[in-house]
Amino acid sequence: MARLLIVEDDPDVRDWIAHCTLRDGHEVRGVADGGGLRTLREQEPAYRPDLVLMDYALPDGDGVSLLEEAQRWWSGLPAVFVTVQWTGEIIERIQGTGAERVAKPFDPDDLRSAVRRSLDEERRV
Amino acid sequence: MTRARLLDLSGFAAYFLLAAVLGRQTVLPGVDLALVWPAAGVGAAWLAVNGWSRWTVLDAVVLFVLSWLINDLTGASTVLAVALSVATVVQVLVFGFLVTRWCPAWWGFGDDPPPGVERLRDFGYLLAAALLSACVSALLGPAWVLSFEDSNWMAVGSWVVRNGIGVVAIFPLSLLLRHVVRSHDRRRGPADHGPMGRQSPVELVALVIVTGLAAWLIFFVNGDLPVPFLLLTASVWAGARFAPGIADVHAILLSGFVVVAVLIDQGPFSMIADVDARLLVVQAYIAVIVVVTLTLSIGRHESLVLSERLVASEKAATAQAALVRTIVDTMADGVSVIDTSGRVVLRNPAATDLVGRQQLDRSGAVDIDAYGIRHVDGSPMRPEESPMAIALSGESVENLELVVSNPSAPDGRLLQVTARPLPDTDPPLVVVVYHDITADRRERDELASFAGVVAHDLLNPLTIIEGWSEALLEDARSDVEVDRDMQVMQLDRIQRAAQRMQHLISDLLAYTTARNLKINPIEVDLDALAQDVARARVEASRVKGDPEPVVTVEGPLPAVLAEPVLLRQVLDNLVGNAVKYVAPGVRPEISVTAGPAHDGEGRPMVLIEIADNGIGIPEGQHARVFDTFHRAHQDGYRGTGLGLSIVKRIAERHGGSAAARDRDGGGGTTMSVTFPAADAQS
Fold first, then answer.
1. How far apart are the first and last CA of chain B?
2. Which residues have C-beta within 8 Å of that of residue B504, sequence separation ≥ 6?
3. Preceding peptide of B104 cis, ω within 30°
4. Spatial separation of the C-alpha atoms in residues A81 and A78, rounded to whole Å
5. pLDDT for res B146
6. Which of B466, B492, B472 has its CA nearest to residue A103?
7. Contact assessment for residue B245 and residue B117, using Cβ atoms and an 8 Å cutoff
8. Quick one: pLDDT at residue A123?
9. CA B191/CA B309 separation, integer angstroms
10. Could you give the CA distance from residue B150 to residue B161 in angstroms, rounded to a whole number?
11. What pLDDT shows up at residue B516?
12. Pairing of strands B397-406, B409-422
């Protein structure tokens, strides 16, 4: 079991990601955007997720920048990007983070596998 | 072919007979050889027509027979007649041998004879071939025997001079005459340029009169004065001022006059007692006349041809330069040519349009710093990194993208620049070409952004539909008791996602329609249209169970000229936004007003304003809300980001505009659009 944090502005998509990952027994929380993430950090300084499931196109910024910000608080935080395949430039930016990428719409098993692989990788490190 | 050739043969035979008969009339008493022998030139021209061919033998035989016949009939002994005839044939054949090597165009030209001798170099060859062939015929022919029998070496010299000059004077004139008569591609003379310009018929008449008068004075009036050389001035005049054909005729006629004078013992030459010496002196005198006249005239001709070519080249170069300049000046791409000291050699108007006015430092060199050049990422470009500087260092720069930002392009202009050193230029030059890619790049970025947003806004709801329907399906297939509320919640998510997709697709279609639909403006009752839109919105809210909006149409509204379908879309989008963007639990209150206005060019318009009590537009976003896919409120309010860009597009296509501002005296927004007033039509 791991603590997962979903950053996704669309509540229906966020809930669907949660629905998929809850089956593996993870503890799941969600925020809509960067603002929500910062509020969570301020209100619960003790909280540290094991993995973040990140959208790229967020209302108040992009997911790669937000991940970099989050990794300053939570060093080594692994991530899985759950996002629409966009331009080559965005895909390259996501690849640059070293995180896995799951394209919407996704197969729940693919998402769970990506989560599992990222957590395993983190544990090995 | 044979018939034509036989006719040609007869013509040349007659021509040769005439020349030979005339020549034989110039035999001085006490000598065997005639004073002049134009038949040598005729014989050369005769055989030159066909060159080396099977006709050569026939031509040579006929030439020999005619020569022998004339000599025989005009009093030469049989031995002498045969010897002279053999020598004549030998001379022509040797002449042919030499010109075949030196001036092949003169031998075997057939029906395309060259227009005489046109270059001084060729005249030199003619002179050499004529004299060498005369020498060979003199040494190898019967003249050799003749001179040894008489022990008179002067006769050998006499043969060489008269036969050589006979060819030099007659051969080019024969070529020219045949060219004039027979050539399919008759060449005109060169245009007159410079100091040796056009000679008039008056000048020709003057030449004839002066030559005749001078000859008469020198040979008949003051015949005992040894001044025949004065007559050479007339030859110089003819050669320096007239075409080779006229000059040659002048030389032949003048020579003829001198010969006649000598034959009748008139003029300075008659004072030379020794007849052989007199013969040689007269022949030398005639040779000087012919050679001087033709040298000057052919030199003049060649100079005129070269001048004409030069003038034509200059004209062509000027025209070419003007054409290139016009092309460069009308190009949409900017072009600058700069020398190594940084001075501008050429700059077209497009360069000024694209990078601004020329910026020079105190030394007059291009001041790169002053153009405000930046890299595409926004960082400043150092002068030594500029394409111009790189090209000046000898390297080429291909399609470098940079941004120019200066007073002529305050928003920055994206340019693709190619700079190359120009090869073979002294002093070295570089050319810089600027291609404006601002619009292309903006369009490309917009397209990419458009595709990305559409993909994002369709794939997100698709994720919801696919995901939650799969969850429902799994539940339905399992034996587990499923919570009914949960199922409703999942179906509700699916339905809302489908509606989002439908809205986006509808808006995309509306956006396309707003761009492409042909506008046929008619008078539209704005008041009735606004009431209708308001009613529909109130009804929709009632159906959904939302707070019913209060829409006040403050009529009567003036009629407008518009495409009714598009105007309805505008009002519906604006009222729809006013209904949607209110704080939770607040009843939307909307007023629709309209009044007269004018556009920038003074045309009467109707200003339609829709004011609401909504959440308003964040500071600084009032203009951007009309951008495609821009969403001022992304948190809690669903939208495609297309509604207001559709409004703006439709208004602009009608010649109007769209704007947004905070509502006067309170929260909310006032959206305004202008459309042409119907009154203007009446």
1. 90
2. B454, B457, B458, B640, B642
3. no
4. 10
5. 61
6. B466
7. no
8. 77
9. 10
10. 19
11. 80
12. antiparallel
Q: Given this model, what pLDDT does residue B150 score? A: 56
Written as one letter, the residue type at A45 is: P
Rounded to whole angstroms, the Cα distance separating B186 from B112 reads 9
State the first-to-last Cα distance of chain A, in angstroms, to the nearest integer.
18
Please tell me the predicted confidence (pLDDT) of residue B680. 58
Query: Do B459 and A57 make contact, defined as CB atoms within 8 angstroms?
Result: no
Omega before B142 within 30 of 0, i.e. cis: no
- Judged by a CB distance cut-off of 8 A, whether residue A102 touches chain B is no
Backbone angles phi, psi at B607, to 5 degrees: -95, 115
List CB contacts (< 8 A) between B452 and chain A: 84, 86-87
Strand partners, B347: B336
Q: Which of B282, B29, B248 is nearest to B157 (CA)?
A: B282
Given CB atoms, is A86 within the 8 Å cutoff of chain B?
yes
Taking Cα atoms as reference points, which of B517, B448, B503, B537 lies closest to residue B642?
A: B503
- CA angle, B658 then B411 then A90, to 5°: 85
**Can you say whether the dihedral through the CA atoms of B635, B640, B641, B645 is positive or negative?**
negative
Supply A49's token pair.
């997720």
For A13, which of B448, B455, B463 is closest by C-beta distance? B463
Residue B351 burial (10 A CB sphere; 0-12, 13-18, 19+): buried
The structure tokens 């909310």 sit at B668
Per DSSP bridges, beta strands A79-83 and A51-54 are: parallel
Q: Which amino acid is at A38?
A: R
| Type of residue numbered B499 | Q
Interface test with A, best of B460, B629, B631 (most A CBs within 10 A): B460
Count of CA atoms in the C-beta half-sphere (13 A) of B91: 40
* pLDDT, average across residues A8-36: 92
Q: How far apart are CA B315 and CA B318, in angstroms?
A: 5
For residue B464, what is the enclosing H or E element?
helix B438-477
Residue segments in chain B with a per-residue pLDDT below the cut of 50 = 681-682
**The pair of three-digit structure tokens given for residue A80, joined into one six-digit string:** 């899985």
B125, B171 Cβ separation under 8 angstroms? no
Secondary structure element (H or E) that encloses residue B10, with its range? helix B2-24
Mode of pairing for the β-strands spanning A100-103 and A79-83: parallel
Token readout for B659 is: 């704007």
Report ipTM (2 d.p.). Answer: 0.89
Main-chain dihedrals φ then ψ at residue B414, nearest 5 degrees: -90, 120
CB-side neighbour CA atoms (13 Å) of B94 = 24
Please tell me the distance from the alpha carbon of residue B651 to that of residue B644, in angstroms, as a whole number: 11
Phi/psi for B223 (5° steps) reads -60, -20
The tokens for B40 are 């040598």
